[in-house]
Design brief:
- It is a single chain.
- The protein has about 500 residues and is an alpha+beta fold.
- It folds into four domains: about 130 residues, NusA, N-terminal domain (N Utilization Substance Protein A, Chain:P, domain 4, 2-Layer Sandwich); about 70 residues, OB fold (Dihydrolipoamide Acetyltransferase, E2P) (Beta Barrel); about 90 residues, K homology (KH) domain (GMP Synthetase, Chain A, domain 3, 2-Layer Sandwich), CATH 3.30.300; about 120 residues, no CATH class.
- About 45% of the residues lie in helices and about 20% in strands.
- The protein is built from 20 helices and 16 strands.
- Strands 1, 2, 3, 4 and 5 form a five-stranded mixed beta sheet that branches. Strands 6-7-8-10-9 form a five-stranded mixed β-barrel.
- The longest helix has 27 residues.
Length: about 500
Amino acid sequence: MAQTLAPEFNLDELLQQAAREKDIDIDRWISALEDAMASAAKKQHRIKAPVRAVLDRATGKFEAFIVKQVVEEVEDPLAEWTVEEAQDEKPGAVAGEEIQIPISTEGLGRIAAQSAKQVLYQRVREAEREKVYNEFIDRSGEVVNGTVKRFERGEIIVDLGRTEAVVPRSEQARHERYSQGERIRAVIIEVHKQPKGPQIVLSRTDPRLLVKLFEMEVPEIFDGTVQIKAAVRAPGERAKVAVFSRERDVDPVGACVGMKGSRVQSIIRELRGEKIDIIEFSDDLVTFAQSALAPARITRVSVTHQSDIPHLDVIVEDEQLSLAIGKRGQNVRLAAELLHSKIDIKSESDVKDEVADALAKMLQTAMDEETASAEPIRFDIAAAPGVGAKTAAIMTEAGYGDLDKLLATPAEELEAVEGVGPKTARAILEWAAQFETGATASESEEIAEEGAAGEATMDDGDFMAALSKALQEAEGPEASESPGDSPDDEPEAEATQPESDEAES
């Protein structure tokens, strides 16, 4: 049986009044009420199958039905019947039909009424949130005024009149403090449909807040004469704004600053003392960079790498370096964001040091290349004194064809080589030492010839005396006249090419 409301209540008028108060379409109210009545009937009769309720707005009566779909193959037994099962309720039913089985809505108990109330509230909240979403989704980036209503876990809940908004902790400036009931102005950065919490997210740190404040304070920006090309912020501390004038006679920086700074000071007060640098935009990256790094005076700017993110090398005077970098790198960081570039700042003294180091490295590299290109001195063990072809082959096979190894070998070990005696071993080592210090090939051959002759005819004393004489002649007149020279002394590191006829012979 259908349930009828008491005659003193006009349901249609009540629904229209509620729709006006909540600013919700009346059809949504009726749909929510029907869903609530269907839920109550389902609770009352303990039915798991789908239930539908229908309101007759003229009579105020509710009717409820169990809804079954007729199908060829059942997938959901609670909501579907086969054609054979449907014949008992409606003979002649075919697949695709919908069968409605009436159920009573009278005598709904307290539990059913509570269920209906919850469903009704839920539908109304959904309608309200959808309305808020549709109203504010196109207003992203717009500045709104509100009142601080309460604080929740560090977040600020703002009353916007018909709805609430939230300023998350991450979107609050660190130096700003608000009290309950205080006016707050913020920019809308997000609108969502999540079921919990305010749907509108506000920000006090977003650069769009700065742009909107300039639009509100500067008529030239509002009417499009002056354009804001870019804006970056370190919230509560410093901001940089790049402006451009579409008319030659209008100074963009002066228009934003205003008479005696009146316009920009109004924005600074709104942002609680945040410093604002107003910069004239330029298409030339170097010129723009020099302006963006104000108040520092820039000596030179060069673009070292041009790509999606340009790389700029900036040189400043030594006393301007700290000003260009700013407190905790703030000035150069904001300038880099404004230019969409990477910036390296160096002082003039640092650049001079780098240039000097680079020149030194270039000079060293050139010297190394020249040394490497010089023709190496050829070492041949066969040229050693007292070493014939057969002995040279034996020594080469034993590894003594390498100068370094030969110099590291003691005379006793060298004597073990076939064909090398004690005198020859000492002569070879003396010759190798002379060869290492730069003896010429002709001098080495001369020493070798004298050593070979000494091996056959001289004793140890005569041989060493002859070898010492040959070495002194190779060193020149000063070496031969020095009274402190002995046959065991090592010759000077730099040897000269013999020029006398005697040396050549």
